[in-house]
Amino acid sequence: MNIIICKDYAAVSAAGADIIEAIVRAKPDCTLGLATGSSPVGMYQELARCCAAGLDFSRVHSVNLDEYVGLAPTHDQSYRYFMDDNLFNHINIKKENTYVAKGTGDIDANLAEFNAVLDRTDIDVQVLGVGPDGHLGFNEPGATLYDGAHKETLDESTIDANARFFASRDEVPRFAVTMGMGNIMRAKKLLMIVSGNKADAMRALLCSDKIDPRCPCTFLRLHRDATVILEQSLADEIGYKA
């Protein structure tokens, strides 16, 4: 793994944006695997500034990691809404070239469509956040991880972590559709943006050599081109030295 330690969140976001910008410039018709949550927001803001300065997203395609079950695309906590609001509405990407799985209607049919999209898509870089428990996308810790896109029951810790985005904890969906670990690992490059209270997950990833399905982020150790960007304060907290 390539580990980049930055002085603060702004620097983390800028470093991530530099990596995405280089990929888009080298391959204007690339496919970006994108993530939601608070961690990549700063990077998306940087990419919007890059686009305003001339970075062209008009031939770029994207596919997102996951979506809540039960939230329509117009719901302000759906991940389609998040992507439009935080990135797509601020760059010149064509909306028809963006894919976020559907979370309403026939979930089995939605998963079949999601898997079909993933099967025919080569992701040039997959952006990742990470949960406090080490989950990637909505691949929750457990004895078994899935290869392909599937419906996941959210852990109580994930519901707790996401409750801040909703009016109450009771409004947080209990299920999501998500890429599987196999889909994530087949991306040509992985880019993990780390912010917030992620000490346990980063300790497992950076300070141990175990690959543990109870901490899915440890699977990044198996990827030939994975980059993790974190703040110096978090590296100090877990005792990691580059």
Largest beta sheet: strand ordering: 1-10-9-6-2-3-5
**What is the assembly state of the chains in this entry?**
single chain
How many runs of DSSP E, i.e. beta strands? 10
Instruction: Give the rounded overall mean pLDDT.
Output: 97
What percentage of the residues does DSSP assign to strands (E)?
A: 15-25%
Task: Summarize this structure briefly.
This protein has 8 helices and 10 strands.
Describe this structure in words.
With 242 residues, the chain is of the alpha/beta class. Helix content is 32%, strand content 17%. The protein contains 8 helices and 10 strands. It has helices at 9-26, 41-52, 79-86, 107-119, 156-162, 181-185, 199-206, 232-238; strands at 2-6, 31-34, 61-64, 66-68, 98-99, 125-128, 150-153, 175-178, 190-193, 226-231. The strands form 2 sheets. A 7-stranded parallel beta sheet has the order 1-10-9-6-2-3-5. Helix 1 packs across helix 2 and helix 7 (199-206) packs across helix 8. It is globular, with a radius of gyration of 17 Å.
